[in-house]
Design brief:
The structure holds 2 protein chains of 2 kinds. By secondary structure, chain A is an all-beta fold. Chain A has strands at 5-7, 10-13, 19-24, 31-37, 44-50, 53-56, 65-68, 75-79, 88-95, 104-105, 109-113. Chain A has no helices and 11 strands. In chain A, a hairpin with a 2-residue loop joins β5 and β6. The radius of gyration of chain A is 13 Å and the shape is globular. Chain B contains no helices and 12 strands. In chain B, the strands form 3 sheets. In chain B, strands 2, 5, 6, 10, 11 and 12 form a 6-stranded mixed beta sheet that branches. Chain B has a 4-stranded antiparallel beta sheet with strand order 3-9-8-7, with no helix packed on it. A two-stranded antiparallel ribbon of chain B has the order 1-4. Chain B is globular. Chain B starts with a strand and ends with a strand. Classes of the chains: A mainly beta, B mainly beta. The A-B interface holds A 33, 40-43, 45, 48, 56, 59, 91, 93, 99-108 and B 31-32, 34, 36, 42-46, 49, 51, 89, 92-104.
């Protein structure tokens, strides 16, 4: 079956702009995660959804970052007033259930803020 | 909270050499342990996993054994290939908590 997909694969924007990153999880997976990965580092947790609700958003760095999953499937990560420090690869993963079951990752969206 | 420590790279080996990448963890309860691999330009892929003490995960010639007494989950392969060149991440998943990833170990295998 289809894996996790993310769009766009690359996004270049200017400082101060608004961006949306989309994630399509594996069908039937109830858990969805967003991570941020900077060069040479491991994934950094941002937010975890169980169904439609955010079960844990403790990793969101500040109130410029927001994510939704209105129908319990597709999720959108939204970043307002982007800053150069937001440049990273944003990874989405889904899982049949919540932790500790394994996560299946998408290819990521590379965000570059000029 | 839970944490994962893994050996820093880069690790450079010749083809057919033996590979060990160390991973130790700190966690409450009974976490599951994972190794993920990230090939150049690609996303993270699950390599292997173990869900309880003394379990051995294996895949593509890689193995790791969940050792609760030493809180370790070291990754091993008897004979590496050039195609194994990638970044390897040790990770931990625990009930009621989010996944924790190590910083990754870059492996380069030379022909």
């Amino acid at each position: 079956g289809a894996g996790v997909s993310q769009t766009p694969s690359n996004k270049v924007t200017e400082k101060g702009k608004y961006v949306e990153l989309r994630c399509d999880p594996i069908s039937g997976h109830t858990a969805l995660y967003w991570y941020r990965q900077s060069l040479g580092q491991g994934p950094e947790f941002l937010i975890y959804f169980q169904g439609t609700g955010a079960a844990d958003d403790s990793g969101l760095p500040n109130d410029r970052f927001f994510a939704v999953r209105p129908e319990g499937s597709v999720s959108t990560l939204k970043i307002q007033r982007t800053e150069r420090g937001d440049s990273a690869v944003y990874l989405c993963a889904s899982s049949p259930t919540g932790p500790p079951s394994e996560q299946f990752f998408g290819p990521g969206t590379r965000l570059t803020v000029l | 909270g839970d944490s994962v420590t893994q050996m820093e790279g880069p690790v450079t080996l010749s083809e057919e050499a033996f590979l060990t990448i160390n991973c130790t963890y700190t966690a409450t309860g009974y976490p599951s342990l994972f190794w993920y691999v990230q090939y150049p330009g690609e996303g993270l892929q699950l390599l292997l996993k173990a869900t309880k003490a003394d379990d051995k995960g294996s895949n593509k010639g890689f193995e790791a054994t969940y050792r609760k007494e030493t809180t370790s989950f070291h990754l091993e392969k008897g004979s590496v290939q050039v195609s194994d060149s990638a970044v390897y991440f040790c990770a931990l998943g625990n009930y009621g908590q989010n996944f924790v990833f190590g910083p990754g170990t870059r492996l380069s295998v030379l022909p």
